[in-house]
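Protein Record: Sequence and Backbone Structure Tokens
======================================================
Tokens: labelled as protein backbone structure tokens, with as many entries as the chain has residues.
Task: work out the structure tokens from the sequence, keeping to the layout shown below.
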Amino acid sequence: MSELSDEFTDRFGQSAYPAGFLDRFEPLECLGSSAQGETLLVRERSTGEKFVAKCYPRSPEREASAEGSGLLTGLEHPGLPRFAGEFLSETMRCVVRQYREGAPLSQFVQENTVTTAQLISFGAQLCDILTYLHSQTPPVIHRDVKPQNIIVGPDGRVSLIDFGIARSYRAGARSDTACYGTEAFSPPEQYGFSQTDCRSDIYSLGVVLCWVLTRRTDPADAAKGAENRSVAKILRRCTAFDPKNRYADARAVRRALLRARPEIAARRRFLSGLCAGVLLAGLVFGGVKLYEKLTYSPFTDSGYVNTMQTDPAVVADAVAFLKQRHGATDLFDNTDDYATVGWVKDILVDLYRLDETYVRAKPLDDSAPHESDHNFLPWAQGDEQYMNYYDCAYIVVKLFWPDKVADWSSLRDDNGEYPGSRVADAFLVKNGLRDGVVRPTDLMKGELAILFANTERFYLSQR
């Protein structure tokens, strides 16, 4: 054991630790100490991997209220530290979780100027994590979302740590049994006004974003300091005193944040003016020609930029999520290239591990497209053909919920699209999964990345 470890164990008493804890882990550093316990940086002796151990003194009150260790056992999300084990003695509980490289958000904002785009990216990622937590059965409420518990990794991805006071939502309970949390970032109900639920974490998220923008935690003052009026409106709603006036869930917050991106707001203003111009131009040039120009020509010789161009920041976020979920891949290296049928098949086989024969098989007969256990795609398309939105909607929904594209009972008419594609589109629109995809046909690879990422995030939140 290193000199630092010897000094540390001498200070806190090696005999106090639960049996097996020091056999498996070597303490390296005390990251924090308080009356509630110690946070240790430890190293697993067999692998050399680093972990964080939260060691609490056991008491009836804490045993009854602190649920973080048990809640983490079954959770699996890229934004959460992996649970590694729990060790108990008569006097101490040690909960060990994966160590995440990076800086706490509280430190990151002191050393960097956080742009509105970065703020929205951090907020959207936290919404993904909270959506996953709140979708558990029963929902998991973190109850201590604050800058010190948010780690910003070297790649800009964020992780939510420290589940020491997390709890499960109890239907019918009128209030929490104990008041914990960091006062400036905790909602009113966390101090006995009512039971904490998913909207309590949304309140804390709103205060965190307020603090990042203005270094103030008073929701009323902090929201006023936001230069982006849409962001200020979102923060005010997140931090409403009455939970009924907040967003209903973290997924709704994420959609609002993504719509508030400066470039999207500017694009909406531009498109509003463009619509008026299109109406007038259509009288002279014809709406069809203008539509083709906007849809099929990303750039013209004069340097005109297509209004259907996908937001690069949204594409980058989607690609980063997919690589984090499925490992390094070069399938998304050229996101400005057109997506082809063959490329999408490669994704289904290489990333999602579908049977290659099933993915690449064409229908057995030349009749109208139909569902079949023999082939994934219900229609015969050449691998070189470009992908349109409706076909892509069908593919991403069928990948996770094959029963949805096979149920056509909700359709009342025939508009020429394959029925499975139409019900898939309705599902994506209903759940906000089409956000970020603006072209109706000949989609780029980046737009497919957005569809895959949006759909997979939603799927993970429903597990």
